[in-house]
Amino acid sequence: MEHVSSSASSTPGQPGVDDALLVATGMTKHYGGIRALQGADFTVYPGEIHGLIGENGSGKSTLLGILSGQTIADAGTVSISGTPIHFSDTRLLRKNVAIVTQELSLALDLSVAENILMSHDKPRKFGRIDWAELYRRGAVALKRLGLDIDPRTQVGTLRIDQQQLVEIAKAVNLEHQILILDEPTSSLTEDAVLMLARTMRTLRDAGTAIIFVSHRLDEFFDFTDRITVLRDGRTISTRKTVSYTKSTLVEDMLGYSVEHYEREGVKSERNADPLLRVLNVNVGHKVHDAGFEVFPGEVVGLVGLEGAGRSELLMAIFGALPEATGTLDMDGAKPLPTSPLHAMRRGIGLVPGDRKSDGLMLEMSIQSNINIPRTAGGLRLRWLKTRNELTVASRTSTALLIQKGSLAREVGSLSGGNQQKVLLGKWLETNPKVLLMDEPTRGVDVGAKREIHNIIFDVRNRGLGVVVASSDLEELMVLSDRFVVMFRGQIVGEMSHSEATTARLSHMATGGGT
Question: Which residue among 280, 348, 444, 488 is buried most deeply as judged by most CB within 10 Å?
Answer without folding.
Answer: 348
